[in-house]
UniProtKB/TrEMBL annotation:
Enzyme class at the top of the EC tree: transferase
Its membrane topology: Multi-pass membrane protein
InterPro entries in alphabetical order: BphY/WalK/GraS-like (IPR050351), HATPase_C_sf (IPR036890), HATPase_dom (IPR003594), His_kinase_dom (IPR005467), HisK_dim/P_dom (IPR003661), HisK_dim/P_sf (IPR036097), PAS-like_dom_sf (IPR035965), PhoR_N (IPR021766)
Primary localization: membrane
GO biological process, one term: cellular response to phosphate starvation
Protein name: histidine kinase
Matches recorded under NCBIfam families: phoR_proteo (TIGR02966)
Compartment(s) where it occurs, according to its Swiss-Prot or TrEMBL record: Cell inner membrane
Catalyzed chemical reaction(s): ATP + protein L-histidine = ADP + protein N-phospho-L-histidine
Transmembrane segments: 5-22
GO cellular component, one term: plasma membrane
Amino acid sequence: MIKTLISIGLWCLAGWLVGTWINANTGWAVLTLGLVAMILVSGVQLSKIEKWVKNIEDPPPASAGPWDDALAVIYRKLRKNREEISELDYAVNSIMLAAEALPDGAITLNEEMQITWCNKMASEHLGLNMETDRNFSIFNILRAPEFAQYGRQPSWPEPLLLHLAKDGREKSLLVQLTPYGVKQFLIVTRDVTQVEKLETTRKDFVANVSHELRTPLTVLSGFLETLHDMPGDSLSAEQRESYHTLMMEQAHRMQAIVADLLTLSTLESSPSINGKPVRVAAVIRNALLQAKVLSSDQHVFVQNIDNKLCVLGIESELTSAISNLLSNAVSYTPKDGTITVSWYITETGTACYSVQDTGIGIASQDIPRLTERFYRVDRGRSRATGGTGLGLAITKHVAMRHHAELHIRSRFGAGSIFSVEFPASRVIVQAEDEGQKAAE
């Protein structure tokens, strides 16, 4: 504004000087021309400002005359506002990304309990679709009577455990509803399916261990009480020897269970390592010698063993897994049955150890549960064979620690094939002479 007044004052001075020097009419003409020129220049400047206003993100025009100072202040303010908005957008986006990355589900509701937003995990937990479920009541989407009762409470001090079925699978969700902001609500969901399974497994494990140890303890206790209460000369030497033998059998059974439990605990708690090359052929042959002793020459053993194949691993663990599969085959194969032991490399470069028998076989519904601790298809027969019910669980853990897979194929009454397949990354093929030395 000051620049404009100064310009007008200068033109007035110029007109007065010209009017004094030439004549008054000429002076007025100069003043008029100056004012017209100022109006035209202002028009051009205003036109530039009008164009800039239509695209206010660009810097203001370079020369806007008396408007320069005002436009500079406006542009600085606009730029500062844009920076603040950008920072706010970045913060909001970071918060939204963090909410999407949460391992728990998050759902926001308005005062009418209608869904306004949810993250990806909540969509997986409850099957929500924001394109179709937005602004719908949560009670119309999550149709569980216990949730309806929970959600309509005046307050929610404790979470709710929901058991839902989706795609034929049971899912357990911990749901917590809490108010926030002004008449808004937040639902947090957590998948506790695996936690519940682990808790159930723990309870079953404790119950199974108690059950497995109860029988030998009862037998031992009964015999000891009998021996304690009876006079020393009331039992013959043969009876006393028979009692001692039975007690020793039960004590050995408890020792076997405890030993297998300790083995499982060690496998689960110790870190996995690559180990060193193990001559599996030699381990198999040692296990075969023990299996033949257990068999008492009642079975036919067939060997198909590649002496050159080794795997990276821990020999003691591999010995346990190899022996478990062989002893199971001996225990569950009738007299004169055939047990085929194979150790070979597959077409894909993996190494496979398999034990095939012509035993009693396993029903298809029992196969998925065979590696559970203490699971037995026939409890009476399993105890008669002296098994602890932990052999296949140990074998499975050994396989997992060596990045291998345990496969079970069987048909009831037609025998079984148990195989452990090691990945190609762990397979080592020795030279022929080294393989022969390993066989010796």
